[in-house]
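In this section we walk through a basic example: taking a raw amino acid sequence and producing a predicted 3D structure, encoded as discrete structure tokens. The instruction is simple. Fold the sequence below.
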Amino acid sequence: MPRPATGLQLNPEQIIATVRTLRTRIHERFPGSGLERLSGDLLRIAEATGEQLVWVARPHLPLRLGGWLAIVLLAVALVSLALRLDPRTTGYTLAELLQTTESAINDVILLGAAVYFLASAEARVKRRRALRFIRDLRAVAHIVDMHQLTKDPGTLVNVGSDTPSSPRRTLTRYELSRYLDYCSEMLALNSKLAALYAQNFDDPVVLAAVDEVETLTTGLSAKVWQKIVLVNTGERE
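The resulting token sequence is shown next.
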């Protein structure tokens, strides 16, 4: 069922510009870090998403012409079937009529399957392209989660000692807060990029994939904000 038009839409260019600004901010704050490289990956996906949205919105004439041709052939087959099944004009016996009917029905079924395949070819091609980029966004969200995984606010109180395998923790309280905030912003922008496909491509499979990304990023962002709250609470104390 098509979604009702509300007049409110996400602007791909503004989202891409926001991702670009975030990458610059991360570069200035944490140059050469893994988070900076990941923000660059997110920017490339965002720019490619803008191009893909244009591609998805554009009609693909060869696929559409193929679908219309198949529909015309199906109509011709139905007319031919009606003529072949008229015993007054063909003089068929009952056995011949049944045999002709079975053959004609098989032809119509095969042609109908071809019509469905060609008529849905454009949607399938666009769906496949959209799902590939949505999978990339899902992967970025998981990588963001990996980056924030070792950013533990509890280490700021210097309780206990590190083991030889402990990750290096060199960030100050303020830097840790900024790092986690950047992670949260990346997750939010990741979700908005996925939402662009739901806005421009009303396909149930794509919509389900977008919902999964939004659920994933919301859950991961909640984890990050719990850490941000702990960092800021500790700073006030």
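Looking at the output, two observations stand out. Residues 61-119 form one domain. The chain has two domains: 12-59+123-152+169-236, 61-119. In the next section we compare this with other chains.
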